[in-house]
């Protein structure tokens, strides 16, 4: 067997030396404060039963058998895409295999050579990878800083007068859990004739009435060029969709390589998306409990005098900054010994010095669990100051 090239061996050794070496491990037992399953949909028997009924109704069972442009466009796609477009108040929806596929498929295909993309500096890796594949020029603006964005829009307006300018943000940022001022951001883009793209991954199923997302909660959907909704988080299943105009959908079908050249989602995956959305519309109890838990978590941050190390957030993601890979892993291990699963986010995933514990709040966490995990964290911080 061939040895790994020395350059690659060196990169792995560097990861081990700075304590950022990644490895796959089985999920350990303990109270879940780390998964993206915010509403417990991934284990819902009601959703599973509804999915089974849909598969029987449309007489589809296992694999998609090919890409959507060949043999894989089974009947459930059209039904569920219409369902998504209606739920999210959009002209059209196009399902992709994942949020990653949707982002690289969009950004590698839509912005053209003479166009400009201005993106939030904290944008997800899937967006950044899509930007690398694009022929357009890309520049970043400071995180959630609309003044900085406006300066860049004003600076580049004349240079890109005959081209398109795209602005990219997220409705809930995955590492900090914070959100932009979407109303002002949409107005700013409208004033500068820029097309706004919003990744709603961590807002889908969590924010707004029925979990519609931040765009609809702010009633700015008509000012957004494209939205990316993913289903592997609060919806508890798999896949993603790009929402936008019917012309955008047709363009993506023709030019988005991550859609064209991959086997389509299985009928089971698409049916599960439909079932999860049906359940989200019918039963608000999980969403209501989630928001109660978020508020209790924020209250307990204050009660344990931890506000100085938590990033301000109203979402299900609450980030506690503990600098240094060694230190943040040590605290995560301490919490695990107390039966709490909280994952450390290490550099280089986040910038050096901003390593953090990333708490994910769920509808199934109890007030007692929330109070106890923050009490343990508070005691550790107090004893190490």
TrEMBL record:
**Which regions span the lipid bilayer?**
none
Q: In which pathway does it act?
A: Lipid metabolism
Cofactor(s) needed: pyridoxal 5'-phosphate
SUPFAM superfamilies under this entry? PLP-dependent transferases
Give one GO molecular function term: transaminase activity
PROSITE patterns on file:
AA_TRANSFER_CLASS_2 (PS00599)
Q: Where is the Aminotransferase class I/classII large domain?
A: 29-364
User: Out of the domains of life, which is the source?
Assistant: Bacteria
Q: Which PANTHER family did the record assign?
A: 8-AMINO-7-OXONONANOATE SYNTHASE, CLASS II AMINOTRANSFERASE/8-AMINO-7-OXONONANOATE SYNTHASE
Protein name, UniProt field: Pyridoxal phosphate-dependent aminotransferase family protein
* Biological source species: Christiangramia sediminicola
Traced from the root, the source organism's taxonomic lineage reads:
Bacteria, Pseudomonadati, Bacteroidota, Flavobacteriia, Flavobacteriales
